[in-house]
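Hi L., both proteins are below.
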Amino acid sequence: MNHFGERLRFREAFLDGRALIVNMMFTVCKGTCPGASAALRGLREALGPVFGERLTIVSITLEPRDDSPAALQRCATIYGAGRRRPELCDWQFVTGRPASVERLRRSLGFYDLDPRIDADVTQHGELLLFGNSTSDRWSALPASLRPALLIETIRRVSGFTFEQRYGIRA
């Protein structure tokens, strides 16, 4: 379920021929989440005009028991994603059943190889997974990288056209 109260399934909702940026987060976090969400807000503003409706940002809660759609809505509003804006790409804050979120977290690669560290979800990193479901090109980088580097890399990996990838009209 997203912060708009809409029920969805990850594969059907997001892997439908669009580019994605995905992260894991907490609505109440004193660690890396605020910085990662601020970076995503900047990426949305920079990449929204380039990709339009073909890019979606998905922030998935690590605390599905506590982070209800209403809590996600409050968090989304802080970062300018509380309502859909046609001039920007879609940004959805997502929760679900704890077992489903855990399965999704692992299938997307948001886990630590050390089981002790992985068991403590507060040890999560500020990783951004991004790619294009049409070309099946995917990569990941820390959200704390310089914005220009993130923008360039996301464009090159996730772009559908030469212009989206390189910023040059073909």
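That was the first. Here is the second:
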Amino acid sequence: MTDPGKAGDLLAQIPSTPGKGLPPVHLWNPPCCGDIDMRIARDGTWYYLGTPIGRKPMVKLFSTIIRRDGDDYFLVTPVEKCGIRVDDAPFVAVTLAVEGEGEQQLLRFTSNVEDEFVAGPEHPIRVLIDPRTQEPAPYVLVRSNLEALIHRNVFYQLVELAVPRLIDGEEWLGVWSCGEFFAIGPQP
């Protein structure tokens, strides 16, 4: 683990690209400098040294430099790569706006860091079922290989929108967005 000033050091290394989108973390391959005591909880709260980061602009900035390599998460700048812990997914989909209906429907999600994206081929929805509890864990791809856990209230909205469809001979419930059907569970 690095020293407590490491988070501030990382912030200072993030190139400023106003109006140009996200930094190209996928192109940066600096050496790994170890892990820092930063964690993203399942509810989307970011912690540094065990304390919640209360400044939303700082969390939003950190969220632009997160990268997943295999099962590990890192904050990456052009000169440094530091490991962090993520309890489940680095983002949470906290709101859903529905435009249109049927196969033409668009499902627009907003994450806890105010990223907006529409479910579709580039942002697929998937639902894992816990084999022990049978509880669903729904996710939507935000970017690259970074997902958002779909908040329970938002998942309930998806369930309300669900329609049946036959998939490989089985009846499933799912939702449409951008002409894609996303199965969210078997038809009871």
